[in-house]
Amino acid sequence: MKNCSLLIFLLVITICPGLILGQEMITISGQVTDESTGNPLPFAQLSVQNSTFGTVTNEEGRFELKIPVYAASDTLLIAYLGYETLKFKPDVLPGSFFVLKLIPRPLQLAEVEIVALTPEEVIRQVVMHIPANYGEDSLILTAFVRSQKFISGKLAEYTEAIIMDMKIGYRLYPEKDEKEKRHASNVPLLLKGRVISDTNLVNAIGDLGKAAGCLGCNFINDFAEFYHHSVLDEKLFRFYQFKMEEVLTDAGKMYHIWFDQRKGVKEMLWKGELFINSADFALLKVTQKPSFEAYESYEKQKYRRSFTIWKTPGWVEEMPLMEWITTYAKRNGKYYLSAIRIGNWMTFTHPPTGQKLKFSYKNEVVVTDFTRDPVMIRDFKGDKSVGVNQRWDQVIGTSDASFWESFNYLPIEEKLEKEIKQIRIGSEAVK
Asked: Average pLDDT over the chain, rounded to whole?
């Protein structure tokens, strides 16, 4: 146990020095906006040039980026699709807040240029280039994770965590090996965590609300790592219809592909968009949501699985509304997973009584750092079982309140902050 504690301590200092040695880190905070309208730009990517440090903005365009003092004079890059990339050298003073304005650059169709490739051919190239673009060697990501659970529109549970996650690398593999790859990759190590919840409300909805979920599951919506059974899978091309345009950005040409399930297909598939760098076929962004072409298929199958809610069995789930957004960024010469955001809105009905319950959750993963150091990978001691069939308070134990008061890679939106305060008030009333 002592050796394990020492190892975790060394890992934290090496990869996330700010968690232990706060005085060696500085914080760059601010908001990214549209120069023309002043509107905030959510999901803008920020990274320190020639380093592994980075973050993304929240829904209000706000960010906090913690970097070592030695990187304070380096150039900060701010990128957002459809805008010119901004290069910025911050003069960091205590309490500084930067408003970074990006200049819109509408995506333009390539002039007088014949699209030589079909969407399917572009996607094949994306898969072929995965090892070169994202690296075949194992790596450890350090990420800030936020999760929110809502019941009938009310915030029921709010969690934040800092997780290290080991991936076994990006390489091409046959479909039959995917189960083994999923088992071996995304091994998490929880460094810090906290949970604030309305216990009665969470317990009332049974298994739907109780589980924290495996910590490594936060990282599996990585399309470059698990491309089988996704829109990138050539075997599924016949089930999809594609549309593509070539667009010009300040970074060069990009392929923009729309996809949706074909009419008449009985599978339950997706619709969404892909953004691909044409120079090296790197996947930059994926958005997807359920295709309503699958509605009839879902309706026929929904009664096969029932839930127990409020201690009453027989609840069924209507077709969920969800959206996944996965982005990648180039840091220090390679492409890396940058962020994953998932919103899931579910309605459960109880046919015998006609009761309805709305349950939703929102997960956000922001990759703040990474390493491919072979010694750290060899000595990594994660555990895939953590969080499986466990509540968050069982996973994290006693939370370190003082740590979270001064730490936030993803600033809390004003509305969310009010909801969190209401949970705290309710918890104190129960006590």
From this structure: 85
- Only one residue has tokens 């074909």, namely 262
**Report for 1-5, 286-290, 297-301, 406-410: range of highest mean pLDDT:** 286-290
Tokens of 109: 């169709």
* Whether the Cβ atoms of residue 85 and residue 251 lie closer than 8 Å to each other: yes
Q: What is the residue whose two structure tokens read 């969920």?
A: 320
Give CA 73 to chain center in angstroms.
29
Q: What is the 3-state secondary structure (H, E, C) of 20-39?
A: HCHHHEEEEEEEEEECCCCC
Instruction: Give, in degrees to the nearest 5, the angle at Cα 409 between 225 and 283.
Output: 25
Helices (H), 28-163: 119-128, 130-134
Handedness of CA 185, 410, 28, 421 (dihedral sign): negative
Provide the residue count of the chain.
431
Compute the distance between CA of residue 65 and CA of residue 410 in angstroms, rounded to an integer: 9
Whether the CB-CB separation of 41 and 63 falls below 8 Å is answered with no
Alpha-carbon gap, residue 54 to 65, rounded angstroms: 7
Which domains are assigned to the chain? 2-106 (2.60.40.1120), 119-430 (no CATH)
CA distance 174 to 381: 28
List, in sequence order, every residue forming a beta bridge with 193; answer none if it has no partner. Answer: 161
User: Edge-to-edge strand order for the sheet containing 45-48?
Assistant: 54-56, 45-48, 76-79, 86-88
Per-residue pLDDT, 14: 43
Residues contacting 358, CB < 8 A, separation 6+: 150, 151, 152, 153, 345, 346, 347, 348
319: closest CA among 294, 341, 353, 350? Answer: 294
In whole angstroms, what is the distance from residue 328 CA to residue 246 CA?
19
Question: CA angle, corner 289, sides to 286 and 292, nearest 5?
Answer: 140
Asked whether 339 and 367 are in contact (CB, 8 A), the reply is yes
* Tokens of residue 382, six digits: 């994660």
Which pLDDT score, from 0 to 100, does residue 428 have?
Answer: 55
Tell me 245's DSSP state: E
Give tens-digit pLDDT for 310-364: 888 899 999 889 999 999 999 888 899 999 999 999 999 999 999 998 989 899 9
List pLDDT tens digits, range 197-226: 888 887 777 766 666 567 888 899 999 999
- Give Cα 13 distance to the centre of its chain: 24
